[in-house]
Amino acid sequence: MKDNMEYESVIGLEIHAELLTKTKMFCDCLNDSEEKQPNKNICPICLAHPGTLPVINKKAVESVIKVGLALDSEIPEFSKFDRKNYFYPDLPKGYQISQYDEPLCRGGKLKLYLSDDPQESLKEIDITRVHLEEDTGKLIHPEDKKSTLIDFNRAGIPLMELVTESVIHTGKEARIFAQGLQVLLKTLGVSEADMEKGQMRCEVNISLKPQGQKELGTKVEVKNLNSFRAVERAIDYEIQRQTDLLEAGDKIIQETRGWDSVKEITFSQRIKEEAQDYRYFPEPDLSPLHLYSKTKEGGLFDLDKLKAELPELPWDKKQRIMQLYNISSAGANLLLQDDKAFLFFEDTVTKLDPEYRESGTPLAYNYLTTDILGIIEKKNLKWEDIKISPQNFSQLINELVLEKISSRVAKDILLEIILTNQEAEQIIKTKGLEKISDGSILIPTINKVIKNNSKAIEDYKKGKENVLQFLVGQAMAQLKGAADPKELEKLIREKITG
Ligand SMILES: [Zn+2]
Question: Which of 6, 21, 45, 269 would bridge 27 by S-S if both were Cys, CB 3.0 to 4.6 A apart?
Answer without folding.
Answer: 45
